[in-house]
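Re: the 116-residue chain
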Amino acid sequence: VSTQSTGSSSPFILRIMGKKLVNLIFRDPTFLIGKRVTRNIWFHRPEYADTYYTITKVVPKLNTDACKRADIWGYFTFKGQREAEPKRLRSTLKPQWLILDPTLQTRVPHSPPVQE
């Protein structure tokens, strides 16, 4: 578990990083419904601050292999502007997803150090 913060001014903290979204979904008993997730490529770039999905629906798929799969929907927020309708998330099998946790707070890595 990491305590790095996101590249935005919001108080969201990275909780679990660099995993396939489907693996993160199946680790949580609520399938992360209502939680915010982002991709590494957005997290590490200040120009994509406040870009994430809020998970609204997960439909697990039956499979014959060891790989877990699911259809995942959520509201997409791009630079702080949330889209009106939830949409199906793409690239959920790529190992580049992070869970954002609003219960922790720390300094934003792309901002200057806090003067004490």
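The longest strand covers residues 52-61.
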